[in-house]
Amino acid sequence: MDTYYLMQIINGLSAGMIYALIAIGFTLIFGVLNVVNFAHGEMYTIGAFGGLVCITALNWPLALVIIAALAAGGLAGIVLERLAFKPFRRFQDEASLKSRAMREATLLSSLAVSIIVKELIQYFFGAEMQSIPTQYLLNDPIPVGPLSFSNGQFLILGSSILMLGGLQYVLYRTRIGLSIRAISNNPLGAKYVGLSVDRTIIATFAVGSMMGGAAGILVGLYYGAIFPSMGFAPSIKAFVAMVMGGLSSIPGAVVCALILGVCEALATDFMAQGWSDMVAYAFLILTLIFFPQGIFGARRERV
């Protein structure tokens, strides 16, 4: 394979891993509540700015900065759930859970929180880009034969694989993970057998938002700058990956996020860098036309 295309594939896999971390949060929350969280991109931004505060104000080492971004994202996810989603869960009957009006209300509520969070970040940090100090940047070259990578690419890939593996362990080997899967499958049945639906939903938001926060700081350390609206474009692409994967399939969302990242990277050879963002929208349109249930979606559920 040509060296250039191999480099582009590696770049695409790195970007796809970031989309996958964000898409998992979308998928987890949709699986449990059957609603789309449009404030999830702000969890990505909060993780980035939380890491920036730890860098500039506290001079923490890199490992602690990433842990702080995880914590910031998880805490923000819990607050988001309490403000935007909890008030609409007063009625737990089957009709209310499946109500279209309830889904639309929570969608608009999360969108409102997204706007408020973005404005608050702009108020406290300003609307301009914030630079990451040079000593924290993840762009040191690492030659591998005829190829040249950066340490940031390896860190993004390695951290993403580690977090995805940890998520699979949580979902299939822990009590809270089994609760998440049970409520995702049948919320009323899980409630009747004694599972704490409220506690499980909080845990779902925390886990999904932690991954989004980690993705935000990793991207900031790789590119060297962050800004208040940085979560918009990645969250749109992660949403497309979730739709392609079938809305509630975590493996499907991860696979489709990787496909999307690689296709975007390869598309820059045929179009300008800015136009490569159109790849995600093209995939979304094709999925809705030819795979209305998603590529990995269940037959009973349409996108």
Structure description:
This is Branched-chain amino acid ABC transporter permease. The chain crosses the membrane at residues 12-36, 66-85, 105-125, 154-172, 201-226, 238-267, 279-298. It holds the Pfam family BPD_transp_2. It is a multi-pass membrane protein. The chain is mainly alpha-helical. Helices cover 71% and strands 4% of the residues. The protein has helices at residues 3-33, 40-56, 62-85, 94-97, 100-125, 151-173, 175-185, 187-192, 197-223, 232-245, 250-267, 278-290, and strands spanning 130-131, 141-144, 147-150, 225-226. The strands form 2 sheets. It has a two-stranded antiparallel sheet with strand order 1-4. It has a two-stranded antiparallel sheet with strand order 2-3. Helix 1 crosses helix 7.
State the main characteristics.
two-stranded antiparallel ribbon; single chain; two-stranded antiparallel sheet; disordered C terminus; mainly alpha; ABC transporter involved in vitamin B12 uptake, BtuC
Distance between the termini: 37 Å
The oligomeric status of these chains comes to: single chain
Instruction: Label the overall shape.
Output: globular
Any low-confidence stretches, pLDDT <50, length ≥5?
299-303
Can you count the helices? 12
The spatial strand order of the largest sheet comes to: 1-4
Question: What is the level-2 CATH architecture name?
Answer: Orthogonal Bundle
Indicate the topology.
Blueprint: H1 3-33, H2 40-56, H3 62-85, H4 94-97, H5 100-125, E1 130-131, E2 141-144, E3 147-150, H6 151-173, H7 175-185, H8 187-192, H9 197-223, E4 225-226, H10 232-245, H11 250-267, H12 278-290
Family: Belongs to the binding-protein-dependent transport system permease family. LivHM subfamily.
Pfam family, one: BPD_transp_2
Main location: membrane
